[in-house]
């Protein structure tokens, strides 16, 4: 059974190129997940194909109208079944590796990309299961955030990234930042490689990497080392 991702957006072309790149394209070709970008405008209910309107109470900016949003959400649900409906918004839960792992268990997700000043609150209350933000900064719309979420989740679907070990090893999965990596040549413009990595002594190598990982996390992201209960 394949993992389904459907993005509801005013800019479906935004997703064309990224989905044609190596890792994501191979995953689609291998049947590991399927992807569809739906234009919310196709679900507008008037002859001008309107998707936004002025806010009740006044103020700057436009609000996405409920009819096209709910039309697109219901259409996707009718085809895909009870999969989580995720709204990308700066007001959402911060995206984390843990959230990516949990969504990757499937069976898929519907990603709603907001625009303008936001979406009508009634849609958020009645037709959204989860709201996600990718960080404390403002984007012009939810599309780049949907791509980030999509990438972080899809690479965790079994079979998409070849080496499960490298997934468990990487930054955040073990709570800290990853250790430094080196490859050939051994001497690059006078810069060497830590001797222990050339030693073939696997236990010492593992110890070195653990140390480096801890040092790097302390220096750069001490917040990651704080225990959950404090
Ligand atoms: Cl999910 N959407 C927008 N528009 N801006 C954001 C974001 C999402 N996450 C961080 N900034």
TrEMBL record:
Q: How does it assemble?
A: Homodimer.
One GO MF term, please?
tRNA (guanine(37)-N1)-methyltransferase activity
Compartments reported by the entry? Cytoplasm
Q: Which organism is it from?
A: Microvenator marinus
Q: Where does it mainly reside?
A: cytoplasm
Specify which residues bind S-adenosyl-L-methionine according to the UniProt entry for this protein. 114, 134-139
Annotated tRNA methyltransferase TRMD/TRM10-type domain ranges read 5-226
Protein name as catalogued: tRNA (guanine-N(1)-)-methyltransferase
Q: Keywords of this protein's UniProt record, alphabetized?
A: Cytoplasm, Methyltransferase, S-adenosyl-L-methionine, Transferase, tRNA processing
Q: Which GO terms describe its biological process?
A: tRNA N1-guanine methylation
């Amino acid at each position: 059974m394949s993992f389904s991702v459907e993005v509801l957006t005013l800019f479906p072309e935004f997703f064309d190129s990224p989905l044609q790149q190596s890792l994501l394209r191979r995953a689609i070709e291998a049947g590991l997940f399927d992807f569809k970008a739906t234009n919310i405008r196709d679900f507008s209910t008037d002859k001008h194909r309107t998707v936004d309107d002025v806010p009740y109470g006044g103020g700057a900016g436009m609000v996405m109208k409920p009819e096209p949003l709910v039309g697109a959400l219901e259409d996707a649900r009718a085809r895909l079944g009870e999969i989580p409906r995720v709204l990308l918004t700066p007001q959402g839960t911060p995206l984390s590796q843990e959230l990516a792992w949990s969504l990757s268990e499937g069976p898929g997700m519907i990603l709603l990309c907001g625009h303008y000043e936001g979406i009508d609150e009634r849609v958020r209350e009645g037709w959204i299961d989860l709201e996600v933000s990718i960080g404390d900064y403002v984007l012009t719309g939810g599309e780049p955030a949907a791509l980030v979420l999509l990438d972080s989740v899809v690479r965790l679907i079994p079979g998409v990234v070849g080496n499960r070990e490298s997934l468990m090893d990487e930054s955040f999965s073990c709570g800290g930042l990853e250790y430094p990596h080196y490859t050939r040549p051994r001497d690059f413009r006078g810069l060497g490689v830590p001797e222990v990595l050339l030693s073939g002594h696997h236990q010492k190598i593992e110890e070195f990497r653990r140390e480096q990982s801890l040092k790097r996390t302390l220096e750069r992201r001490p917040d990651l080392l704080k225990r959950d209960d404090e």
